[in-house]
Write a structure and sequence with these properties.
314 residues, mainly beta, RNA Polymerase Alpha Subunit, Chain A, domain 2, 8-stranded mixed β-sheet, 7-stranded mixed β-sheet, 53% strand
Length: 314
């Protein structure tokens, strides 16, 4: 009887040792094939429990989180499995140093870098601000900007109270480069601080402004000499010894592209066959299309050899 009990006890002990050894082998194999490792991830930093009507600044976009887990668990793990956040509960307006929290369901969080962040909390405010248009580029040389019509002409700017105090203006850039006629564009309004810096930490509503821009023709003036021209011939024995124009320069107006190319003004030709003596002849100025002048005619004084000193007006 005693021998039989001892035999059974030996069998159970052998079985226990087999299971124990198997477990040890499994643990050994797993530790060799799938060991516990550490890995670092760049994780977006979230803000939690911020009081209504408040806004927070200087929150880093991401923090570094070092976690520990099995090699297989960390190998293909998405970053979303790690959650990093700062708890902003019951914080008042001002600067605060807040600890960064991190959670990891598949293992342990070893380290967060930085461990704390300096944040600024302010009241959220809004204000109504007029919108202006600012010209970018230059239109066609013959045109200038006449006016802008903005729809809407005012926007609501929302942000921290201290930032709204620094707001200088809200504008939309309007590119008129090479334009020669009225046009309409839709532009995003931009906020600028009093120090001239862009304010990307405020919200503008609406986010788009319709801008209708009208152009007008530019008028340029110039005072140019006139050039005498002749037609036909004098009677035999006569010769023009001098010819003067009064006035010898005339002021004209027109678009820059036309005026800048004018060096002198042509006159209708003087008909010499009608001239037999000294004469003062009114002559019409030939004006290019789109050009106007301070006068339509000039007087041409002709001195003719062989003729008397008496003048004839024609």
């Amino acid at each position: 009887m005693i021998n039989k009990n001892a035999e059974n006890r030996d069998k159970w002990f052998a079985r226990f040792m087999c299971v124990f050894i198997a477990c040890c082998l499994w643990i050994y194999v797993m530790s060799e094939q799938n060991p516990i490792v550490e890995k670092e991830f760049a994780i977006p930093l979230a803000s939690r429990n911020l009081a209504e009507g408040m806004i927070v600044f200087n929150v880093p976009e991401k923090v570094s989180v070092r976690v520990r887990g099995t090699r297989t668990a960390l190998a293909n793990m998405p970053e979303s499995d790690i959650f990093a956040f700062v708890n902003l509960s019951k914080l008042s307006v001002g600067t605060h140093t807040i600890l960064v929290n991190a959670r990891f369901a598949r293992g342990d969080v070893i380290q967060v870098t930085p461990p704390a962040v300096n944040l600024f909390i302010d009241m959220k405010k809004d204000k109504i601000v007029p919108v202006t248009a600012e010209i970018v580029g230059s239109p066609n040389k013959d045109f200038a900007v006449d006016s802008h019509l903005l729809t809407p002409s005012e926007v609501k700017v929302e942000g921290a109270a201290t930032r709204l105090e620094a707001l200088d203006k809200v504008f939309v850039p309007v590119d008129v480069g090479g334009r020669s006629e009225e046009f309409t564009v839709t532009q995003k309004p931009l906020a600028v601080a009093k120090d001239g810096m862009d304010m990307q930490d405020v919200t503008i509503d609406p986010a788009e402004i319709i801008v209708r821009t009208k152009l007008k023709k530019r008028i340029q003036t110039a005072t140019l000499p006139v050039k005498i021209a002749y037609k036909g011939e004098l009677a035999e024995g006569l010769k023009v010894t001098s010819a003067t124009v009064n006035p010898f320069k005339v002021t004209v107006s027109g678009t820059p592209s036309v005026i800048e190319n004018l060096k002198e003004l042509d006159l209708e030709p003087v008909e010499l066959e009608k001239i037999s003596k000294n004469a003062t002849v009114p002559v019409k100025i030939i004006l290019p299309e789109g050009v106007s002048a301070s006068r339509q005619t000039v007087d041409v004084d002709l001195t003719v050899d062989g003729a008397g000193a008496e003048k004839t007006n024609e």
